[in-house]
Task: inverse folding
């Protein structure tokens, strides 16, 4: 997103958004990070990781059973007969054994290690932060250094014994997917926080904000069911797209569906004028009408865009389409967080 911003304010707001999305950031360990000023987004990420990984090292790195294959003098686990035969052909008196080992050399710690190494060699991370990460890296001597492109992120599952990894691995994802390797000296240049990554954080921040400050609205992300009749061809229903809301607020029989959008440009250019993005409008309208199956008009929709550069966004009353209110507004992230909070509170006041 290309914004004319006060970098300090914007980066500090990223921290606040992360602290809502991940409650662990409100614990004592991270208070020092909250008080610092950052000019580079990845310097902030490095500071969070320094605290988070140090905390995890003190508690002990996460271990899990990892499948291993080794040539051993004595049997362990089960024998791979084909590999053992090959060893015999080579006159090696070994057994090819396959077994599980309770190890810290697993995907979770491998991601931490490669992220540490990348940040140490990055251009826009402060020297003192790099030095702190170097001290942490010595605890990963038994962990393989993998290539970021080989990471299967969908394999990560958070349970009771590795729940503390969720924040730091999400930060690792943002770092590794926004990094470009240079070809001159082998150092790494970190790219800007991409819209795709920011949109996920933006959505989660708004949802968690309302969960903390307005539990009475029962904030959650829900799946809206298609308003289908029994006459529909059942074989075709499976091809309908899933309608998953970003944020749904409900109180006293009224519902507001908020669709959070983080785009480089909120408005779309249509011939000689700018318009709301048709795909976004159709999407929120489909959510609203399929939820309001009784046509009560008690279900409303709101497109909430992150405010971009000097774009003029129409501020006015919502449309009423087919008896339901559909609105669009912006949330300015380049202002003090108290004002961001006020904008989110105004949404609640307007619709409830």
Result:
């Amino acid at each position: 997103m290309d914004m004319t911003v006060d970098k300090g304010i914007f980066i500090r707001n990223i921290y606040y958004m992360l602290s809502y999305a991940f409650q662990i950031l409100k614990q004592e360990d991270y208070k020092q990070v909250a008080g610092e000023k950052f000019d580079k987004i990845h310097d902030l990420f490095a500071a969070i990781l320094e605290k988070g990984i140090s905390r995890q090292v003190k508690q002990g790195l996460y271990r899990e059973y990892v499948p291993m294959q080794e040539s051993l003098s004595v049997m362990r686990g089960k024998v791979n007969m084909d590999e053992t035969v090959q060893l015999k052909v080579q006159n090696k008196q070994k057994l090819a054994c396959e077994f599980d080992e309770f190890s810290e050399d697993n995907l979770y710690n491998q991601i931490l290690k490669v992220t540490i190494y990348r940040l140490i060699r990055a251009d826009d991370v402060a020297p003192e932060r790099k030095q702190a990460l170097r001290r942490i890296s010595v605890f990963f001597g038994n962990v393989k250094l993998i290539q970021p492109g080989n990471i299967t992120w969908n394999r990560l599952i958070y349970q009771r014994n590795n729940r503390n990894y969720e924040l730091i691995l999400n930060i690792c994802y943002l770092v590794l997917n926004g990094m470009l390797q240079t070809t001159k000296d082998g150092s790494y240049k970190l790219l800007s926080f991409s819209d795709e990554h920011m949109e996920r954080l933006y959505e989660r921040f708004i949802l968690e904000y309302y969960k903390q400050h307005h539990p009475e609205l029962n904030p959650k992300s829900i799946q809206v069911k298609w308003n289908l009749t029994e006459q529909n061809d059942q074989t075709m229903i499976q091809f309908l797209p899933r309608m998953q809301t970003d944020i749904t607020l409900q109180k006293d029989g009224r519902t507001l569906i908020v669709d959070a959008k983080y785009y480089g440009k909120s408005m779309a250019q249509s011939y000689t004028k700018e318009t709301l993005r048709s795909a976004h409008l159709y999407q929120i309208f489909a959510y609203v009408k399929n939820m309001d199956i009784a046509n009560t008009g008690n279900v409303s929709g709101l497109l909430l865009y992150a405010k971009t550069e000097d774009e003029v966004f129409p501020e006015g009353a919502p449309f009423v389409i087919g008896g339901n209110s559909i609105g669009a507004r912006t949330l300015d992230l380049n202002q003090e967080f108290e004002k961001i909070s006020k904008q989110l509170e105004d949404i609640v006041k307007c619709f409830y």
